[in-house]
Specification:
By secondary structure, the chain is mostly beta strands. The protein has a single domain, classed as monomeric porin ompg (Porin), CATH 2.40.160. About 5% of the residues lie in helices and about 55% in strands. Strands 1-2-3-5-6-7-8-10-11-14-15-16 form a twelve-stranded antiparallel barrel. A three-stranded antiparallel β-sheet has the order 9-12-13, with no helix packed on it. The radius of gyration is 21 Å and the shape is globular.
Length: about 280
């Protein structure tokens, strides 16, 4: 082929392939986040995500089940915001109560993105405010009675086969009407994932996840005095699955405690489970 630079053609073909693969990985179908941790995934501009979920936790005689509906909107290609609407069922062994939980508003901004051939790396910051909208006077309470704030930083790598995420969050808890302030928390998550079989856009896709979730909580305070039987450290190993087909996804996982070092006399967490359904519109 006269007049054509073959090295340029090879370079252009490689660049085109990288762009196509990066586009597939960045699409709403292929974008993944952990189940219990957080990831840097954001929606495309004008996109809507509808995500009903069920979260259940058992700790000694206490059982807590939360039905949630999370709605997210893509403000730009790198910035999303949304609302979390929970309904809680709480049991403490002798009493049970239910009602609307604490409503949250959240936003996530992806400030870094690096596309390579068949892979994408991204990083984002997260901010969330949880309002005292639930009833904390019920026995047991279905709301915290305080306005709390969460700030987080997350990194993610998505390839055709392998995934990895890392995140850290700080939760600052407010004070309720009785001047009780639950201890602040630091949450750290390390997650790995594998897609055993690469699939096409129209085919169902499965990614298996394994998370390591660490939580450190400070002691609670009542009128400025620390409460001894509060706070401490817990570490969870959390297997899960992320199944997608086009614009629909199912996420499910279980948190299994492997280390528990809680202060004073407290029940250790027995387990936590989470099931999420996601539609991207």
């Amino acid at each position: 082929m006269s007049g054509v630079n073959k090295s340029t053609c090879r370079y252009d073909a490689k660049a085109l392939g990288a762009a196509l693969l990066a586009g597939v990985l960045a699409s709403p179908v292929w974008a993944h986040d952990p189940i219990f941790g957080i990831g840097p995934h954001v929606l495309y501009k004008g996109g809507v995500e509808v995500a009903p979920e069920v979260h259940r936790e058992k700790k000694g005689n206490e059982r807590d089940t939360e039905l949630g509906l999370e709605l997210t909107y893509g403000l730009t290609g790198d910035w999303a915001a949304g609302i979390d609407l929970p309904y809680r069922f709480a049991e403490d062994g002798s009493e049970d109560a239910s009602g609307v939980g604490d409503v949250s508003l959240f936003t996530k901004y992806r400030f870094w993105r690096n596309d390579t051939l068949g892979a994408q790396e991204t990083a984002a910051i997260l901010a969330k405010v949880q309002f005292a909208s639930g009833d904390d006077n019920k026995i047991p309470p279905v709301g915290s009675g305080s306005t709390d704030a969460i700030l987080g930083l997350t990194y993610g790598y998505e390839g055709r086969k392998w995934y990895r995420w890392a995140s850290i969050r700080y939760r600052r808890n407010g004070e309720n009407d009785d001047r009780l302030r639950r201890g602040d928390k630091v949450l750290v998550d390390l997650v790995g994932g594998i897609r055993p079989k690469p699939t096409g856009y129209l085919e169902p896709d499965t990614v298996w996840l394994l998370e390591l979730n660490a939580e450190y909580g400070q002691r609670a305070e009542l009128r400025g005095s620390e409460l001894p039987d509060t706070g401490g450290t817990e570490l969870f190993l959390s297997p899960g699955i992320f199944w997608t087909k086009r614009n629909f996804a199912v996420k499910a996982g279980v948190q299994i405690p492997i280390v528990s070092n809680l202060h004073g006399r407290q029940d250790n967490t027995d387990y936590r489970t989470r099931l999420i359904l996601e539609w991207h519109l």
